[in-house]
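Recall that a protein's primary structure is simply its ordered list of amino acids. Everything else, from secondary elements to tertiary packing, is in principle encoded there. The following example makes that idea concrete.
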Amino acid sequence: MTALREVAVVGAGAAGLHAAEALRRAGYDGRLTLIGAEDEPPYDRPPLSKHLLDGQWQPGRLALRSPDALAELRLDLRLGVPAERLDRQARTVHLADGHRVRCQAVVLATGVRPRRLPGAEAPLPGAHVLRTLADALALREELRPGTRLLVAGGGLLGAEAAATAVGLGAEVVWLVSAAAPLAAVLGAETAALLTGLHREHGVRIHRGTAAAVVRRRGRAAGVRLADGSELAADAVLMAIGSEPATEWLAGSGVPLDAGGGVACDAHCAAGPGVWAAGDAASWPDPRTGRRRRLEQRTNATEQALHAARDLLAGPDGARQAYAPVPYLWTDQYGLRVQAFGSPGTADRFELVDGSPADHRFAAACLHRGRVTGAVGIACARALRHLRAQVAAHAPWPPADPVTRQTADHAPARLS
């Protein structure tokens, strides 16, 4: 590995930073270039829809590392300059400012970009997405008591932003297309708990599909639905999903999956000299055999570490398949919901501790008799045991005596 002297990491978010740190910790001492499209040094994104949006945190608190810590990594840091093209033959990354970065190996960590509704493809006053620090600050400027905010999108980002906005006194309409928003992520029971909390706090949940942003007087004034009706608003947040930021790889030979993600192998490699990590990377899940892409904060870290290890191991080194236990959390109305695995695919919900009605519980999420997910609030010990069951894809009831004892004393199953 002494011959490796030039590595580039494209993407200066959590995945890119952790890949760079892992390379240095493992002893790589050559040139290490970290390329980011945003002007800001690496920062954390989950607080954007919560602590940053409600004003509790200021931008400086989001920094993932201090200036001194970044300096210790000895990075050739290229911020505010997107990558435009990867030339694998010449081993070169072409940047938007005309510069070229030579690299014997590259880690692709460019993440995703938010989808926009027709009518707001270009920046439009009053129409917002929520991916970057600048996005969050722009939306925060509009949130004040009485502001009519329409949140389009029934996922976790839309739910968190709706909860934050109503807490600031905004009048919030949450536009969802699914009959049970959040159920695909957290399971039906936990989704019902959270949507109930939204209603209790004054969020109006409207069932429908957004078709376009309505413009009036040069700014967004609501959303037109697929049925032709309109919902008026002072501001619109488009939280309708995202797509991998991989268009710059066109013609590079880097394989992309059907959804546009970087198609890695089981070790996070996407071809000779190319690895990928984070929101834009997909890989074959060794448990299911199906290709998977995770837009989760913990996956950004774990996959970056795995990619860096594989990069340094070389073709003859010890290699292991990437097999994480997916983990996510969401903070809404003072509650932190945590989930492992895939609760949304469950056909049974087995309480092992507490009760959803008390806002304190842990539950196993089963599919065909096996633990494929776990979800809970304020039950850390029980969730730790359930995580092991998820990792093992264990049958139910559990063989683990601690988990079995907890389950035996739990309330009756909800179904």
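The first strand starts at residue 6 and ends at 10. The chain is about 25% helix and 30% strand.
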